[in-house]
Amino acid sequence: MTLSLKPHYSAVVIGGGQAGLSASHYLKKHGIDHVVFEKKTVAHKWKDERWDAFCLVTPNWQCQLPDHPYDGDDPHGFMIKDEIIAYVDRFIKKVDAPVLEGTTVSLLEKVDGVFKVESSAGTVTADCVVLATSLYSGPSIPRAAERLPDDILQIHTVDYRNPRQLPAGSVVVVGSGQSGCQIAEDLHLAGRKVHMVTGNAPRCARFYRGRDVVDWLADVGQYDITVEHDGMTKKKHDTNHYLTGRDGGRDIDLRKFALEGMSLYGRMDGISGGKMLFAPNLKANLDNADRVYNGINGLIDRYITEKGIDAPPASVYTPLWEPPIEPSELDLAAEGVTSVIWATGFDPDWSYVGLPIFDGTGYPVQRRGVTGIGGVYVLGLPWLWTWGSGRLLAVGKDAEHVVDHLAGYLEGSQPILRQAVGR
């Protein structure tokens, strides 16, 4: 879409991913004039930052973008990369959002009662702003990476595509979240020697007692629990459970991989003299992942009992393998390591926001996307309101709530703001 920038909008949306597009969808429904600024291209993370064998971790039925539910014939399957992109592309076409791609926002501030948005396409003012830039702006790579030998290839998960792009030799994957575990599996299945550096990520069964665990959890009501429930406020900083939808879906069990030749380590503590150093917490990391795995299954067991559901019998996972030692180091040259993949997450970039809306951790202070500054909203963050807030499942519901609030704000405040900008 080719746009000519206006000097003022009722709303400016910053970010053209699924959250920003969902906001645009509801803004159009309300008849609210707006523009969407996107630093790269619309939905670029789905298209440009996923590996070749990528597929959904949650079943297809959880794809619930606004007025665009999953429209295929396999609701309990897991779309592969090209299918996901096609689904998102259909949503992009349906929304037809007023997007300016390749537009970087450098400053958002409030001046004379309106919001001033400076961007590479020009400066505009707005009555309201929606920050939909997520917490995943740029790859997070530890400074220790600078101490790796120069002959070792280093890439982040956003740049990994397939095992063939890596030089021959062993590969270290640092980080055992969803991406790290799935990429380690991808390399393992291709016959590559993998050294897996674990963290505190939990894991989850794919299927249990005859059904996908996600289906059970939906019935239990886990996806309806809000961040305001007791003990849930810290969830927004948690690492996602690891499992996969590959080949119809299955568990990811690092202990099984260890039996098949994958080497496992505790948390990386540093790099020195051509060696990667580790904390002695491999066993603790594996045990904690399994504790969560069994805890989720136990929750399902209790639900089945309470409801009197006829289901296959319960079971408890018991470890297939235990680490014989806690490895303290990995000699990279001696083990033939030629590549390191950093599965160490992302850093948010709120540097453009000149408004006091953040807590001490850099997370916006808000309640379901509504901040303490009138007319300022956030969308697409993990646990913004529920488990699905940062995902295809519930980002649309949050966007609807935010835009409904925004519309009400405009009805009450717009006359004053119009006067402030001389309109």
Automatic annotation (TrEMBL):
This protein's record includes keyword Oxidoreductase: yes
Keywords: Oxidoreductase
Classification via InterPro entries: Auxin_biosynth/cation_transpt, CHP04046_FMN-dependent, FAD/NAD-bd_sf
Superkingdom per UniProt: Bacteria
Molecular functions per Gene Ontology: flavin adenine dinucleotide binding; monooxygenase activity
Name of this chain's protein: Putative flavoprotein involved in K+ transport
Organism of derivation: Rhizobium lusitanum
Source lineage: Bacteria, Pseudomonadati, Pseudomonadota, Alphaproteobacteria, Hyphomicrobiales
